[in-house]
Amino acid sequence: MIYDLEINSAAHYPAAGVIDLIELAEGVGFGAFWKGESNSTDPMVLISAAASRTKSIKLGTAIYHVYGRSPVTLGIQSATLQDLSNGRLLLGLGVANKSIAAWHGGVFDRPLRRAREYIEIVRKVAAGERVEYDGEIYRTGKRFQLSWKPSHPVFPIYLAGLGPQMTRLVGQISDGVFINMATPSKVKEIAARVRQAATEAGRDPSKIEIIAKSRVTLNPDKKAAREKLRQVLTFYNIADHYSDMLRGMGFEKEVNAIQEAFQKGGFKAAMSALTDEYMDKLPVVPATDVQEIKERMKAFEEAGVTRMVIPYVPVTEPVVEDAKRFLKAWGEKR
Fold it and tell me: Mean of the pLDDT values across residues 211-226?
């Protein structure tokens, strides 16, 4: 299992500081750096900057949603980043939700078809092929082709998935699944479904990557380490898709209590309703030592995870210095 790093967007890291952290992450042995978007700093801009200051670490988007740019635009961006980084792009995509779609003037509909067509176009564009795509959702018009021959035309495309239909689609068309907020037992269930779908589609299931996340904090004060994660977890417990997923993993009582507290007293009340006992059952690690994190990750490896993404949530200000302490501690425990 490969360990990757994500710099958690909820911490509002300054963009220039993120590049310093990616350089350090490469030095201490992380396999890839991942960056998400929504209303955060832009992944492709940041990993392009990182590509110019690193040599070997993979550079990923987790997750770029399909509503923010046309598939032709993302194909051009991907081919450019591949040339710039000497072939280090890991492209993670997702269909987002109603809110994110609306931010970009889109309508959240037909997510399975949308994901399939989007990926097909991105692959063709980034490979330098002539593209005249006429799909049910996306149409590219006539005679589009890159003006140059990409030096690294093939790269993995991963698709975020939680539910049965999307994760089956992953097995059919993508290079792997990106799983957020899932326990090891849930990851094992999703991995089995993805690989079964790959087999049914005539693909080699062993080639499909299973990528999962576990957010972590590192601080000598266990209570302080917990509080930052409590804030992040509260958001997921009141969010539509993730709250349903958490209920489906057996946490209906806990989710209902948090949502009830939110309705009555707002976000702070909801945070107070998220107990330490519940936190310890979720894919987060409030650590006082790096070894605690690595011990907790063993269950994900046993569940079939091939790349384990560690989104680091800083406890103290300035956030870049906190993250540097985490990375240095990680390197010491290699």
Answer: 97
pLDDT of residue 205: 97
Report all structural domains of the chain as residue ranges with CATH numbers, in order of start: 2-218+284-332 (3.20.20.30), 221-283 (no CATH)
Phi, psi of 293 (to 5 degrees): -65, -50
Assign 9 a pLDDT band (cuts: 50, 70, 90).
low
| Cα–Cα distance measured from residue 224 to residue 316, given in angstroms and rounded to the nearest whole number | 9
Question: In whole angstroms, how far apart are CA 85 and each of 35, 80, 113, 201, 299?
Answer: 16, 9, 31, 32, 33
Question: Does position 220 have pLDDT exceeding 80, yes or no?
Answer: yes
- Distance between CA 74 and CA 155 in Å, rounded? 13
